[in-house]
Specification:
The structure is a single chain. The chain is of the alpha+beta class and 293 residues long. It has a domain at 123-153 and 165-292. Helix content is 32%, strand content 14%. The strands form two sheets. It has a four-stranded antiparallel sheet, with helices on one face. A two-stranded antiparallel sheet has the order 1-4. Strand 5 and strand 6 (289-292) form a beta hairpin. Helix 2 (35-42) packs across helix 3 (44-51). It is elongated. It starts with a helix and ends with a strand. The model is unreliable at 20-32 (pLDDT under 50).
C-alpha cells in the first residue's frame, strides 16, 4: 500500500514538471523569433499606435530604442537624436519655451497624446496714444490683473501615435478670440475685415495662422522650427507699410507680446484726432474688449 502511495506521488511530481515545462515553452515565456516580437509582447499598445501613424510605422522598436550599454533594458531616445530642432532656439521662434521640456515638448504637439496646458497672462493692458503733429506716441504702458488660461486639447491617443500638427489643438483661446473680433481680425474703416487678414481667403485655419506666423517668412533672416513671433508692426514695416510719423520706432517701447494688441485695438475703435491723447484699456484674449477714454 505504501509503495502504491509512493508511486502516485512520484507520478504526480513528474506530470506537474512536464506541464510546467510545456507552459514555459508554449505560454507566457515562449521563444521569440525576433527582438521586435519581444517588445510587442509587453507593448502591444505601442505597436497599435505606430501602425496607425503616418510616420515611424516602418521602423523597428530598436531603431529608436537601442539596447543600453550600461542598463538592463533599451534606451529612451531623444527626438532631437534624429530630428533637427535647432530652430526652436531661434529668438524669433514662437515655441522656444518647449525646448526645456525635452521629448514631452515634442509629444505635446506632434502626437495624439492629450496634454493640458495651464498658464496665465495679465488681464488688461493700459496705454496712451498721443497724436502730436505727424507723430503718434505710445506712452504709459502698463499691465494689470491676471487671467488664468487652461487648454485641454482633448486628444484621444498615445505618445507614439504621431499626427499632423494643428494650431487649434493648442490655441483654442486664440480661435475663441478671433470669433469675437480679437487677435488678427482687423477691420477697415468700412467695418469689413482687411483683405490680407480675412479668414475667408484661406482654405484652412492653419493656413490663416501661417499667413502671419510663417516659420519660413522670406522677410525674416532665419527659419524657425514651427511659427514665428510676428507682430503687426514688424510685418508692416518690412513690407513698406505707411504709418504716421515715428510710430514704427515708438511702438517698440511696448513689450513684444502686446504690440499687436495695441495696433488692433486702435484699428477697431478709430484713430485719435490730431493733437489729442486717448487712453486705451484692452482686455486680453480670449475675451477681447477695448475701452477708450
Amino acid at each position: 500500500m505504501n509503495k502504491l502511495i509512493y508511486l502516485i506521488v512520484i507520478l504526480s511530481i513528474v506530470i506537474t514538471a512536464v506541464s510546467e515545462t510545456v507552459s514555459i515553452v508554449q505560454g507566457d515565456h515562449s521563444f521569440y523569433q525576433t527582438v521586435q516580437n519581444k517588445c510587442i509582447k509587453c507593448h502591444g499598445d505601442i505597436k497599435t499606435q505606430l501602425t496607425t501613424s503616418s510616420q515611424h510605422s516602418s521602423y523597428s522598436c530598436t531603431f529608436c530604442h537601442v539596447k543600453s550599454q550600461t542598463n538592463h533594458t533599451n534606451t529612451k531616445p531623444l527626438c532631437q537624436d534624429c530630428h533637427n530642432t535647432s530652430g526652436l532656439n531661434d529668438p524669433q521662434e514662437a515655441h522656444s519655451g518647449f525646448t526645456s521640456l525635452g521629448n514631452d515638448g515634442c509629444i505635446s504637439c506632434h502626437t495624439t497624446y492629450n496634454t493640458i496646458t495651464n498658464f496665465s497672462r495679465p488681464e488688461y493692458i493700459d496705454y496712451d496714444i498721443t497724436v502730436s503733429g505727424t507723430d503718434w506716441v505710445v506712452s504709459n504702458f502698463a499691465t494689470s490683473g491676471s487671467l488664468a488660461i487652461s487648454n485641454n486639447a482633448g486628444k484621444n491617443g498615445g505618445n507614439h501615435n504621431l499626427k499632423e500638427v494643428s494650431c487649434q489643438d493648442c490655441h483654442q483661446d486664440i480661435f475663441d478670440a478671433a470669433a469675437i473680433g480679437g487677435h488678427a481680425v482687423v477691420k477697415d474703416k468700412n467695418g469689413i475685415e482687411v483683405n490680407m487678414h480675412d479668414r475667408n481667403n484661406y482654405s484652412t485655419s492653419k493656413a490663416w495662422c501661417l499667413s502671419c506666423h510663417s516659420s519660413s517668412n522670406p522677410q525674416l533672416p532665419t527659419k524657425q522650427h514651427s511659427a514665428s513671433k510676428t507682430t503687426c508692426d514688424e510685418c508692416h514695416q518690412l513690407s513698406g507699410g505707411d504709418h504716421p510719423g515715428n510710430f514704427f520706432n515708438n511702438i517698440k517701447s511696448v513689450p513684444h507680446l502686446y504690440r499687436s494688441l495695441v495696433c488692433i485695438a486702435c484699428k477697431s475703435t478709430g484713430w485719435p484726432e490730431p493733437n489729442s491723447t486717448l487712453h486705451f484699456t484692452v482686455r486680453e484674449e480670449p475675451y477681447f474688449e477695448v475701452k477708450v477714454t
